[in-house]
Structure formats: structure tokens, C-alpha cells
Amino acid sequence: MSGGHVRNTAAMVTSPRCGARTRDGTACRAPAMHGKRRCRMHGGARRSGAPKGNRNARRHGMFTRDSRAERHQVKALLEDAWGLLGELK
Ligand SMILES: [Zn+2]
Question: 47 — alpha (psi -120 to 50), left (phi > 0) or beta?
């Protein structure tokens, strides 16, 4: 036998790791998919991970300082309006 059936695992060993942050805060050590930088659990597989036009990030933006300040302004405006109405009475 010349070892023809030995699996070549070198590619797997040297392939880039996924490195995505897992829930326990450690880096994912699964090998990244071919031509991808993430493993199949972290977006390497098709139709997984964040889709194009992902709105999760934007939804999260509802709570950024900017939109908070904006809402604060709206609230102040409303309070002004109510105050004006009160003065007109
Ligand atoms: Zn991964």
C-alpha cells in the first residue's frame, strides 16, 4: 500500500478559520467555506447570515443617540404646542 487512500487534511488545517464571535465570546474555530471568510454557520452557506438590504442594523439604529435626540426634539415641540394651546385658553 502506498497510502493512496490517506485523506489530505492539509487544506483543512491551513484554510482560514471562520473567526466569528460566538455566543460565549470566543472565536468560531470552524474552517471557513471555500472562497468565504466565514464557516457555514456564520454566513458561509448560501441563504444564511445577513441578507442584502438587511434591516436589522437599521432597526437597531432607532436607539442611537441621533434618533433619540430627534425624538426628544419632537417631544419638546409637542410640549411647546400644548403649552401654547394652554395659553390660548
Ligand atoms: Zn463560524
Answer: left
